[in-house]
Amino acid sequence: MSSVTPTTKKSISKDEWEQRLNKVKINKQDLNRLVMNYLVIEGYKDAAEQFSLESGLEPTIDLESIQERMEIRHAIQSGDVDTAIELVNDVNPEILDDNPELFFHLQQQRLIEMIRKGEYPEALEFAAEEMAPRGEEHPEFLQELERTMALLAFQNINDSPVADLLHPNQRQKTASELNAAILISQSREKDAKLPMLLKTLAWSQEKLDERMVYPRIEDFVSADLVVRDSQGNVVDDAIDSSSSAIL
Q1: Choosing a second label site near 166 at 20 to 30 A (CA), which of 38, 158, 207, 214?
Q2: What is the C-alpha to C-alpha distance for residues 184 and 79, in angstroms, rounded to an integer?
Q3: CA distance from start to end of the chain
């Protein structure tokens, strides 16, 4: 019978952790650039203008181009895919011509909006005439088309297994994909740095969890440091290193 050897993780108190964090020097302008990068990439024109006034930092791109992307994003998030396509073609018709996957996702969103409105005959006709031929040209799209069409199989589509297609996150996903394509066509970076940094932070904490017990950030909005004991209970005082043995 084999035995399991206890593994003791290194522990660090909240006070010591905060002292170490306070020693890290961060340039305020670097933080400002990070915020401006996010506002510009995500298309928050008004916020970018206001932040520019407050920080003295000039936007890295023409704010008018942000306005165009804002209008396109708003159209998608409002369910008006036709208007979004018209606006994109005004910016650069090659964006959709050169990206069949993006165009399929826009057409998929149009189909979802028809089903959302209860326009079932129109949805069936659109799927047969516009989307099925694209599925034949690009078999990799068929699964997504079949999943979207599954919405029609349920009397109450909100209770269907594919109801997530009706969630605002689906519109947001399509809008973000289109926004990224526009930025690429303008030879600009398509992803904001701030979300990537947060993903890196989350990954780093997961790796650190394997090696030590420490105050970690669980809510990235508040950024409060949370200390938990070996049973997972939140504690306020220093971590007891004797309680960190894991079997």
Answers
A1: 38
A2: 24
A3: 16
